[in-house]
Amino acid sequence: MAEAAQAVEPQNWGPRGTAGVSFAASLEFDDICVELGGRPVLDNFRLSLRPGEIVCLLGESGSGKSTALRVAAGIQPVSAGALRINGELMSAPGRTVTPDRRGIGLMFQDYALFPHLSVLQNVLYGLKRLGRTAALEQARVSLRRVGLAGRENDYPHQLSGGQQQRLALARSVAPRPGLLLLDEPFSSLDARLRETVRDETLAVLRETNATSLVVTHDPEEAMIMGDRVALLRQGRIAQIGTAAEIYSRPVDLAAARFLSPLGEIETAVRAGMAETPLGPVPAPDFADGARVTVAIRPVGGARIAAQGPGIPGRIVSRRDAIGIDLFEVKLDGLDVPLGIRQPADGALRLGQDVSVVLNLEHVLVFGRD
Ligand SMILES: Nc1ncnc2c1ncn2[C@@H]1O[C@H](COP(=O)(O)OP(=O)(O)OP(=O)(O)O)[C@@H](O)[C@H]1O
């Protein structure tokens, strides 16, 4: 991949609203089981996507995300359950309809671009069912939309990493599939480019109206892209909901830890309050004496000031991240310093005594066994 070209790539996507429109399909995983190497990888996996919906499948490495996508694509057979696209049975034990008969578009690492075909030929490849004129027109609509109209005769190796990604997108949406399956579509791009490509890809997905299942291990990416986010753990959905639901009410401590870093305080509940060195935290769902973990998000969970009300603490570490300060604050009664991120403030220095105030909106309480 051309690293230098990535860094200087202009942001010249085609005009928004010009991608071809698909007839969105529904997708249903109905108690799917897959075993690989004698181990269950998908374990009664259930998930339904409504037509036009974008769902992000989020999970740790090895949780089964790619396997779920491969089942939807028809590359991975199932040992139990059923997969339906638009209500039509596509996968069941002993039956796997091939990928080309599913009406799907794929953006997978292992369905990479054809290196020996030109940019235009790469897109035409998926349009063989159309007549030459219609295929050319549809391919050019897609290439224009991703800003590659002038590169038709180039070969993939002549494109930057970001442009290759755009070509992969153009190729997958050109046949106007009802369902798009995307596996870690931006993982090969550097951070700055990833944001542009992700935002434009999201715009294209919205324009085409194709139902989309996007696999990612990046919580921020999932929360930005997904109408809903499905959290996968050991081959099962641990939680599903909108980004706001998942973020504000993670199902358990493990889910919360996966979504953001946390400061954790182990304590007990008394009269509906979890007692912490930072003051009491409401825990109305827990009985008296229940052992809980209070989890404080570095962003928004607590804030520090040089003066004013709050619990006394001392800054033991400070890093500057372009407009944001990353602090570690030592507090009496806490073994580990508390991580806090907040807008940069020149008045707050290493070693300084500060007052710390909790923002209960970003503080979570979980039960402990
Ligand atoms: N062909 C195979 N044979 C045996 N085990 C496999 C095979 N393919 C995948 N696995 C195992 O299945 C589990 C799930 O793999 P999968 O690729 O679906 O996970 P993932 O969530 O997509 O992970 P990643 O984010 O690392 O890609 C892993 O533990 C993996 O080692």
Automatic annotation (TrEMBL):
The ABC transporter domain is annotated at 27-259
Q: From the Swiss-Prot or TrEMBL record, what is one GO molecular function term?
A: ATP binding
What processes does the entry annotate via GO biological process terms? quaternary ammonium group transport
SMART domains of this UniProt entry?
Answer: AAA
State one Pfam family annotation. ABC_tran
Q: Name the GO cellular-component terms.
A: membrane
Q: Which InterPro entries match?
A: AAA+_ATPase (IPR003593), ABC_SmlMolc_Importer (IPR050093), ABC_transporter-like_ATP-bd (IPR003439), ABC_transporter-like_CS (IPR017871), ABC_transpr_FbpC (IPR015853), Mo/tungstate-bd_C_term_dom (IPR008995), P-loop_NTPase (IPR027417)
Its keywords, alphabetically, are:
ATP-binding, Cell membrane, Ion transport, Iron, Iron transport, Membrane, Nucleotide-binding, Transport
What family is this protein classified in?
Belongs to the ABC transporter superfamily.
Do you know which PANTHER family this protein is assigned to? SPERMIDINE/PUTRESCINE IMPORT ATP-BINDING PROTEIN POTA (PTHR42781), SPERMIDINE_PUTRESCINE IMPORT ATP-BINDING PROTEIN POTA (PTHR42781:SF4)
Name of this chain's protein: Iron ABC transporter ATP-binding protein
